[in-house]
Design brief:
Largest sheet: none
Order of helices and strands: HHHHHHHHHHH
Distance between the termini: 39 Å
Radius of gyration: 23 Å
Length: 262
């Protein structure tokens, strides 16, 4: 039995390693060539350098696009945090059957590609004569990120001990005071984690920005425009910055929600 288990463990480990390599090797190559001193994106390496990072740091268009992406992510995080928390607080007050139905409805938007939302929003903005701008893009980011925030906060509140609020009411605390002094401090890690997750979704989102941003291009749109002009070594540096930003936000989000669950 032990002899048979060893080959199975070997093949299982090989399968996992192959899958991980397939997922992360392209990203590793991008990061490696972002530090390549030569503009030629081919082996062998001629040396390591930060010249491409220095070049994008001095590129006004890249800096402006990054600022727009950061603004969109921050506003999206705040808006989805407030709206998602309000919706989750309303969810826990429903009966179990109604709560299950609402959760199913909340999961439906997650199955739709962002492209469908982007086309729909672009058509709506055009008919309403709203115009295409960064604000229009932020509204779209809120739409696609809100279900994630709602589900995370709904799960957090599902574990919340509402007997604490009943005790606070018995001691004379109003509902507003009980929320600010009891509910919010307890679920704050989950709220922050959900907001960070929505920020990661926003800063990396392309389809909605492509249809609604107009001339106010975000960083993914800028990368798309430069790819159409040809392979540019600075794209590796821009992509690495995006990768580090979204990975950091996702890690902090997981960290916050893990602490809340503990």
């Amino acid at each position: 039995m032990r002899r048979r288990a060893k080959p199975r463990a070997f093949w299982s480990g090989l399968y996992v390693a192959t899958m991980l390599a397939f997922l992360f090797l392209p990203l590793a190559i991008m990061v490696a060539f972002s530090l390549h001193s030569s503009p030629r994106m081919s082996l062998p390496f001629e040396g390591l350098s930060t010249r491409w990072y220095e070049e994008i740091a001095g590129d006004v268009l890249v800096v402006r696009a990054f600022v727009r992406s950061a603004i969109a992510a921050a506003v999206t995080g705040i808006a989805t945090g407030v709206l998602g928390l309000a919706a989750a607080l309303g969810l826990v007050r429903l009966r179990p059957r109604a709560r299950a139905a609402v959760l199913v409805v909340a999961l439906i938007p997650l199955a739709f590609p962002h492209l469908l939302y982007a086309i729909g929003l672009a058509s709506f903005y055009n008919e309403a004569d709203v115009g295409f701008s960064l604000r229009a893009t932020i509204a779209g980011h809120v739409v696609v990120a809100l279900p994630f925030v709602f589900l995370v906060l709904g799960a957090a509140l599902d574990r919340f001990r509402f007997s604490l609020l009943e005790a606070a009411a018995d001691l004379g605390a109003s509902q507003v005071k009980a929320f600010w002094t009891i509910t919010l401090p307890i679920i704050l890690p989950a709220v922050l984690g959900a907001m960070l997750l929505s920020m990661a979704i926003s800063i990396d989102e392309f389809a909605i920005a492509f249809f609604t941003a107009g001339q106010e291009k975000t960083l993914p749109l800028l990368m798309y425009g430069r790819i159409n002009q040809g392979i540019d070594p600075t794209l590796n540096a821009i992509g690495t910055v995006l990768l580090l930003t979204t990975t950091s936000l996702a890690f902090l989000s997981a960290r916050k929600t893990t602490l809340e669950a503990a």
